[in-house]
Amino acid sequence: MWKSWWTSVAVTWLRCANWLKACDPRTRPGGVPVSRRIVIATRESALALWQAEFIRSEISRAAPGYDVQLLGMTTQGDRWLRSPLAEVGGKGLFIKELEEAMLDGRADVAVHSMKDVPAQLPDAFALPLIGYRADVRDALVTPSGLTLDELPAGAVIGSSSLRRQAMLLARRPDLVVRPVRGNVGTRLAKLDAGEFDGLLLACAGLERLGLAERICERLPVEWSLPAAGQGALGVECRADDEELRALLGSLQEDTVAGCVQAER
Fold first, then answer.
1. Burial environment of residue 42 by CB neighbours within 10 A (0 to 12, 13 to 18, 19 or more)
2. Could you give the residue numbers annotated as active site?
3. 198-236: pLDDT as tens digits
4. Which of 14, 36, 15 is nearest to 25 (CA)?
5. Alpha helices, DSSP H, located in 126-241
6. What is the distance between the alpha carbons of residues 58 and 112, in angstroms, rounded to a whole number?
7. What DSSP character marks residue 214?
8. Which helix (H) or strand (E) holds 255?
9. DSSP line for 86-118
10. Sheet with 217-218: strands ordered across
11. What is each CA distance from 113 to 15, 170, 233, 263, in whole angstroms?
12. Model-level pTM?
């Protein structure tokens, strides 16, 4: 009788323990213990979300015990679309709010396109992971399929980058360049609506969004020198978060990081 009673108690205790474990927020479904929750701050454009999801999968693959979540945010750069970036503060406008979310504890990490990261970070932040570089070249997208040399004189090309504008006009001074703002999808919609005869975009972004078929010409670097760090991803965190810096540093691709640092 006592043996049966103790067996019943043990079974009940195990059931309670399993139930408590399942309810524990530090434990993932399936019973995998979670050592820490990591929140990735990200802009909400399709490309930014792709990049954040990619980094989330890389962290989860390398460290299954971490619960990695995304925090979607709209930055000042996303909201201010009436003027070229160079006139309203540059690409740092895409990063400021993400850094504020890390400082106030809402997020632990931010994922960036390295071409958008200022050369100098504030002392409170570190960039322990640079890698995952795709095609560094600029892309010409035209609805007609024409290449750069085939475009007629006076064709209107959209680009928000002063670098791309200058290099385009150095090769084809007979073209007209106009600024275009918005995410990749917004810019392509403007092109398809006839507002432009072509767009200059990054090959890497189009490839990551599954839009490589829109590329009519991958411009040689001799024609259009890519931005420093173009095509590479960077992951930023607080400088005082030693645990996270070590984890992200273990994922860094040293060859890519060395090239990007030299370019910057």
1. buried
2. 116
3. 999 999 999 999 999 999 999 999 999 999 999 999 999
4. 36
5. 162-171, 184-192, 203-208
6. 15
7. G
8. helix 254-263
9. HHHTGGGGGTHHHHHHHHTTS-SEEEEEGGGS-
10. 176-178, 156-158, 198-202, 138-141, 217-218
11. 48, 26, 5, 14
12. 0.81
Q: What architecture (CATH level 2) is domain 33-133+229-263?
A: 3-Layer(aba) Sandwich (3.40)
Spacing of C-alpha 253 from chain mean position: 16
CA 119 remoteness from chain centre: 17
Q: How far apart are CA 174 and CA 157, in angstroms?
A: 11
Q: Which fold has domain 138-218?
A: D-Maltodextrin-Binding Protein; domain 2 (3.40.190)
- DSSP assignment of 1-14, as one string? -HHHHHHHHHHHHH
pLDDT tens per residue, range 77-95 = 555 545 554 544 445 566 8
In the DSSP assignment, the letter for residue 144 is T
Report how many helices (DSSP H) and strands (DSSP E) the chain contains, helices first: 10, 10
| CA 222 – CA 136 distance, rounded (Å) | 12
Residue 45 reports pLDDT greater than 60? yes
**Helical segments of 126-200, H only:** 162-171, 184-192
The Cα 256–Cα 73 span in angstroms is 28
Residue located via tokens 């600029």: 138
51-74 residue pLDDT tens: 999 999 999 999 999 999 999 998
In the chain, CATH 3.40.190.10 sits at 33-133+229-263, 138-218
